[in-house]
User: Fold fructose-bisphosphatase from Trifolium pratense.
Amino acid sequence: MWLWRLLSAGLAKLIGLAGETNVQASGEEQKKLDVLSNEVFCKALISSGRTSILVSEEDEDAIFVQPSLRGKYCVVFDPLDGSSNIDCGVSIGTIFGIYMMNDNHEPIIEDVLQPGKNMLAAGYCMYGSSCT
Assistant:
């Protein structure tokens, strides 16, 4: 469903600015698809029951999952990398990294602030009309 929204973004009027400024250092304005993508990824990761902390490029603060849905992983991600180029038909994607919680304790931001050697998995999923 999310991919269909992405592919039909022009028809669904999802292309364009959301009226918010991105929290990243560049301060670029968020696109509507940035906001939608972030909502989809956060809901999916939280409902999986596998995550404790989510850190998205689109959010100012980390999201701490409620105890009843909490798992043992921390996920850092940009739900729609390259969205500033989407109007041009350039390929876009999702970039992510996964860490394990340090110990069995209440999640704290330091659980995400780990060296790269502790990363369990990372990846980039590319979407677009020309993914060759």
User: Anything to note?
Assistant: The longest strand covers residues 73-81. The mean pLDDT is 83. Residues 26 and 57 are 11 Å apart (CA to CA). Residues 2-127 form a domain with the Fructose-1,6-Bisphosphatase; Chain A, domain 1 fold (CATH 3.30.540.10).
